[in-house]
């Protein structure tokens, strides 16, 4: 079987390596010629996953047409802000009826669409039944190294989810299926915003008790919004809710946590992005989207709101997190 992964970054490359366990040909599309050459000649993504061997079944290319030809599965692992343009460019080469999985965890600021909603917006209706998402607690480095990992594959068509599940299942990657696409997507996107808040909490020296409280309250925020948008509340207690949130809030490999930690030192966002060699991270963009969704729906998201004020209105991390904490002590608790 031949499959295609769009995006030769760390996560796309890691997933290509997973798919190579069961698939004879895995085509990995990227824009960086040096990365493509490294994968094809040395079986290594030296830019993002240096030292981790890749399957010889993986073939990298700069050509969308070559990557997509006769694909039985397409995985979109490009950054969320590039997804529309890449998918529009890919459309002439997309095989009819091919399953398309996005792995981006974001909400588009301009439309407030989740990633599967964005794909449906930019692809013809004939592709819509075959769109799903892979999400869950998974750092690319650990996935590529073969460390035990669990993720969720969600699609409205359970048969589609199970088809994709079989392709991703390996001795070290356990995949679960779900039909609650909106719950999986909101959980995956908003956890990045909460992770920024947790990074600020730790950078400010508030301690582990406070960190635990913010994670718990953050999960309650995510659940309120997701349920309002039609999610099953049980989804948020699973891998793509609690699981992904805990990983992103406690693992120092998390870029969202790193950004929050550095914001606590009163560093400018642009300076932080330069130091981590990223022009933007999903958590910062999603803070803007979460603020807009809160305004649109009337669902209160106090932690996300404070992260939005820090990242878009230069409020100090200390003032924002102090307000979050004061709010919890000021109000009579009734949950979570």
Total domain modules: 2
For this structure, what is the CATH class of the largest domain?
Alpha Beta
Q: What is the 3D shape? A: globular
Average pLDDT level: 96
Helix content: 40-55%
Order of helices and strands: EHEHEHEHEHEHEHEHHHHHHHH
Total helices: the number is: 15
Largest sheet: 8 strands, mixed
3D structure, described in words:
The chain has 2 domains: 2-179, Rossmann fold (3-Layer(aba) Sandwich); 184-330, N-(1-d-carboxylethyl)-l-norvaline Dehydrogenase, domain 2 (Orthogonal Bundle). The longest helix is centred in the middle third of the chain and has 23 residues, at 181-203. Helix 8 runs parallel beside helix 11 (255-263) and helix 9 runs antiparallel to helix 10. It has helices at residues 10-19, 33-42, 64-68, 80-90, 115-122, 140-144, 158-168, 181-203, 208-228, 239-250, 255-263, 269-275, 282-297, 302-313, 317-330; strands spanning 2-6, 25-29, 58-61, 74-76, 100-102, 131-135, 149-154, 173-178. The chain has 336 residues and is α/β, with parallel strands linked by helices. The radius of gyration is 20 Å and the shape is globular. The protein is 52% helix and 11% strand. Helix 1 (10-19) links the parallel strand 1 and strand 2. The chain contains 15 helices and 8 strands. The model has no long low-confidence stretch (mean pLDDT 96). Strands 3-2-1-4-5-6-7-8 form an 8-stranded mixed β-sheet, with helices on both faces. This is Glycerol-3-phosphate dehydrogenase [NAD(P)+]. Keywords: Cytoplasm, Lipid biosynthesis, Lipid metabolism, NAD, NADP, Nucleotide-binding, Oxidoreductase, Phospholipid biosynthesis, Phospholipid metabolism.
């Amino acid at each position: 079987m031949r499959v295609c992964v769009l995006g030769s970054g760390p996560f796309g490359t890691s997933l290509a390596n997973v798919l190579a366990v069961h698939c004879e040909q895995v085509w990995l599309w990227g824009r960086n010629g040096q990365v493509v050459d490294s994968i094809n000649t040395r079986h290594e993504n030296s830019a993002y996953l240096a030292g981790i061997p890749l399957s010889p079944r993986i073939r990298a290319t700069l050509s969308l047409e070559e990557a997509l030809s006769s694909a039985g599965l397409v995985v979109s692992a490009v950054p969320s802000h590039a997804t529309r343009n890449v998918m529009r460019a890919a459309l002439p080469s997309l095989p009819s009826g091919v399953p398309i999985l996005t792995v981006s965890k974001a909400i588009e600021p301009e439309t407030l669409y989740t990633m599967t909603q964005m794909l449906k917006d930019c692809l013809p209706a004939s592709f819509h039944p075959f769109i799903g998402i892979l999400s869950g607690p998974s750092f690319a480095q650990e996935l590529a190294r073969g460390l035990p990992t669990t993720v969720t594959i969600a699609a409205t068509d359970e048969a589609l989810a199970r088809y994709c599940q079989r392709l991703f299942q390996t001795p070290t990657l356990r995949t679960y299926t779900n039909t609650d696409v909106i719950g999986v997507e909101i959980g995956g996107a908003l956890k990045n915003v909460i992770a920024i808040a947790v990074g600020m909490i730790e950078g400010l020296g508030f301690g582990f008790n406070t960190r635990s409280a913010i994670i718990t309250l953050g999960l309650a925020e995510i659940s309120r919004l997701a349920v309002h948008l039609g999610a099953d509340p049980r989804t948020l207690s699973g891998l793509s809710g609690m699981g992904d949130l805990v990983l992103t809030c406690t693992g120092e490999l998390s870029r969202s946590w790193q950004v929050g930690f550095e914001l606590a030192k009163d560093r400018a966002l642009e300076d932080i992005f330069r130091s981590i060699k990223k022009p933007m991270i999903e958590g910062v963009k999603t803070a803007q989207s979460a603020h807009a969704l809160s305004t649109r729906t009337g669902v209160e998201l106090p932690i996300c709101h404070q992260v939005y004020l820090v990242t878009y209105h230069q409020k100090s991390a200390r003032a924002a997190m102090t307000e979050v904490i004061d709010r919890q002590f000021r109000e009579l608790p009734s949950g979570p």
